[in-house]
């Protein structure tokens, strides 16, 4: 998979690309990330990418010409793929969107700055994506969030022993708690079941912990989660009033 990221700060991505899972995935040829310097598509001496808003008001707006030129150049080189503008007005990013993007061969991300991007560029894009209901200074941190969540879903990106399958949201629920050594730490132990070696019981405990945490913290997720009759019975015993089970 390949990401092209249009930005006025291409070096913003240096440490993201050089560490951990993302570095390994790049080195293994699983993903290519190409920060594209928007200023390379300007023609004036000051390499201007913004201008004052028509109609007046505070702040500056990213000009259409360099962005269109960058997009034209990318679509000439390297095939098709959705063009996504990072924007607080966009569809809210979640694990489902991440999975959908992970099936693309190529994605072009456009990072805004200032007050945002000329609407004609937004109209050319396939979608606008928000990483949450707050305003960042630029689209670069949002692009990193999106790429990180997608890259870890690419086959082979996670190392041996790491898995995206049981993580929060992949099952529609929040993940269960983890424990590691030492067995006793500052007077606190580890749940006995995890030491029992009984894998069936451990799985049952983990499922129940996921259900309990999701009910406590994100009950909205239960509406769409695949719940068995046993899950439902457990949730009801915890006071859950909703209800629809999948089998
Ligand atoms: N004036 C815009 C508004 O009120 O919606 C905010 C512009 S923001 C200061 C500058 C850029 O940061 C945006 O163009 C966008 O690319 C990025 N950005 C800010 N918040 C974001 C969010 N929650 N998700 C994705 N991108 C965001």
What are the defining features of this structure?
Alpha/beta knot; 2 domains; Trp Operon Repressor, Chain A; 247 residues; 14% strand; binds S-adenosylmethionine; elongated; alpha/beta
Explain briefly what this protein structure is.
By secondary structure, the protein is of the alpha/beta class.
Question: How would you describe this protein?
Answer:
34% of the residues lie in helices and 14% in strands. By secondary structure, the chain is an alpha/beta fold. It has 2 domains: 2-151, SPOUT methyltransferase, trefoil knot domain (Alpha/beta knot), CATH 3.40.1280; 168-247, tRNA(m1g37)methyltransferase, domain 2 (Trp Operon Repressor, Chain A, Orthogonal Bundle). The strands form 2 sheets. Strands 2-1-6-5-7 form a 5-stranded parallel β-sheet. A two-stranded antiparallel sheet has the order 3-4. Helix 4 (95-102) links the parallel strand 5 (83-92) and strand 6. Helix 4 packs across helix 6. It binds S-adenosylmethionine.
- Radius of gyration, rounded? 22 Å
The CATH superfamily of the largest domain is SPOUT methyltransferase, trefoil knot domain
Q: Classify the beta-strand content into a percent band.
A: 5-15%
Helix vs. strand class? alpha/beta
- Secondary-structure element series: EHHEEEHEHEHEHHHH
Q: Give me the count of strands.
A: 7
CATH class descriptor name of the largest domain = Alpha Beta
Q: In total, how many domains does the architecture comprise? A: 2
Number of helical stretches of at least 4 residues: 9
Distance between the termini: 36 Å
Mean pLDDT: 95
Helix residue percentage: 25-40%
Bound molecules: S-adenosylmethionine
